[in-house]
Protein 1
Amino acid sequence: MTAPAPGTDGPSARPRTAPHYSVAPAPASPEGYVVPGMPGAPVQGYEPVEPLGPTPLATPTSPRTSRRRVTPRRRTGPAVALAVLAMLLGGLAYGCAPLRAADSLGWLAIAQAGLVALPLGLLGGRNRLLPPLGALFAAGALLLGQLTEHLRRVHADGPGPGGLLHDTLTSWRGDLRPLDAAFYAIALIGGFLLTRRTADRG
């Protein structure tokens, strides 16, 4: 008798080979087991910490609120009062200078403007009314200085029948020159610009 050929109804005499797979089968693991390092695996040595308390919610702040906290408080009233005081002091200092230096002191109108603009800008801040007030106070300091100067001259020469105040105004009007217009322009422009610039820096 001959042995049955392979593929016939009888068993084959060849040894059985391991089955081949295109994808490696997943290893058998007990139910509920997670491989370490995979998502969902417990971390060794980690203990959850309970929160100490509820986290306070951040309250939204508006731009106006934050600006009020950062920007210092402006005081318009004290600023104007100090500017008026600076105008009086500047005018008296100008008028009490030696009479022979009156022509050269006219150019110091910018100094009077700076003296007036300092309190207006630092205390008053960016107020639209303060730069025009700075211009007027600077010109007022120059006018007060010139009137004080002529008052000293009239008082030294002796007042006339019109009185001291009348003679002072008459002497001031008679002594006006085109150069005085330049002095007043310097005082007006300087008072306006210096007040605004001091407010921006403050």
Protein 2
Amino acid sequence: MKHSENIYLIGLMGAGKTTIGKQLAKSLKWPFYDSDKAIEESTGVDIPTIFEFEGEAGFREREQKMIRQLTQMRGIVLATGGGAILLEENRRLLHENGFVVYLQCSIARILERTRRDTQRPLLKTDNPKERLESLFKEREPLYLSCADFKIDTGVMPSKAVVNRILEQFKARNH
């Protein structure tokens, strides 16, 4: 059994990775990183702009470099972008270097959470529900393949989610 020095959060956009991640980091007194924010800080532009000029492929390349960099750190909580698990190298890096938590959430709840968010290029479509369903279908097996623990963030308060993750994390490390 691996001993994990990091907690990595994976899941679809709107599943609560940033919210839960910040609370986990605060509880552990660890630094919190969001791979999307780290990409924005390193490039000086936002994610929608990267998508616009480089397409999803260009963004995924930047994301892979950032995940490689962040997974070399120790004692961090990392919220990954929803599609970070699309690349096998990212799944491997996450799985080998930390405790991977899949934050699962219903499509209805995600739609509710993201409906006013203009910073999600993959939801700029006529039918966001259909788009989310398709992303879920494509990504769910990948999330499950690299997760050490899965929890539904749509049915309990974030504090309860954080407590369950901490219980699981501590149990794995003792």
Protein 3
Amino acid sequence: MSEDQLAGTQARIVREAGRIVQSEGYAALSMRQLAAGLGLTAGALYRYFPTKQHVLMAYCGAALDELTDDLRRIEAGEPEPLRALERMMVAYGAFALADTDRFRVVFLDPDVGRIELADTKTLDGYRVLQGTVRRAQEAGLLRPMPAEDIARILVGCVHGLVVMAITIREIDFSDIETLVATAARTTLRGLSSGSGEN
């Protein structure tokens, strides 16, 4: 099997894992069910991924790659850094809300949280955000504080909102997309260099 064929089969396996997680939840994902959904034997599946954890690592990596691609498109297409940061925060919220089961697996599942994603590119999206924060600071648009702190505040703001919307059913988040956009604008206003005290 060529490298392209191997990569294509692995991508097919990861897509099927995503379909199972989305339609039946993470708990339903097993190597046996995954193999059956692909028309493979469980033994054949193990040639591509030695364990369910390896499938989950690939699944999480693919999700993070998708998010990183979105953030890079925003970075490349939006010359105004504060607007780019706002759009990145909204994109993160949209990523979470587009497939809440995937978001749970990638960011909230304690078993997956213990997986060491071997590829350091999994943080590339966060690095794109940090670079945009630095660009905004160089333009004098954000407070003179560590860029890493600003990036953490921005991600934490949206992450907290979407986690609440996904996990706390007792609070009405019927228009969470608008709330995420409002939180992004408000947080950036508070961090802007013209917002008052430094």
Protein 4
Amino acid sequence: MNVYLIGPMGAGKSTIGRLLAQELNLTFYDSDKVIEDRSGANIPWIFDVEGEAGFRERETAVIDELTLLDNCVMATGGGAVLRDENRQYLQSRGTVVYLQTSIEQQLERTARDRNRPLLQTDDPEAVLRKLLDQRDPLYKSCADIIIQTDKRHPRGVIKEILRQLKQPCSSLS
């Protein structure tokens, strides 16, 4: 069993992924953390030096590799769905869960996080709206399960994911 969490920054992918993996007794991976560990640099530095294109190349390689593993939960970066090949790897190698959240919730959860290069701007709300407009259709197109995370405790979200994972495949969206 493999479960891949997709969604915008601040949706709770890393927190929920870690707890879900514990609940299912699976290994947890955070694709951004794997990229940072392997490169010896944080995401903002990679963006500064290699640009978004360089970061996306690293991300695709890591997603390809991690989706070939068995019995894992992976939290992806918010932009992982931008590349066709990433969506194909995720969809064909496990169950994809879209953690959906509001712009307001994203702003609240990312307000003090300096490790988000796309939000280092005078108007992070406008950036989040633009990203959501671009990415939401991609999230929905590859999701097997869609879960709203706004104002919800991670345990409640995990309980809903587990309930939906137990449903027969034919009832998944």
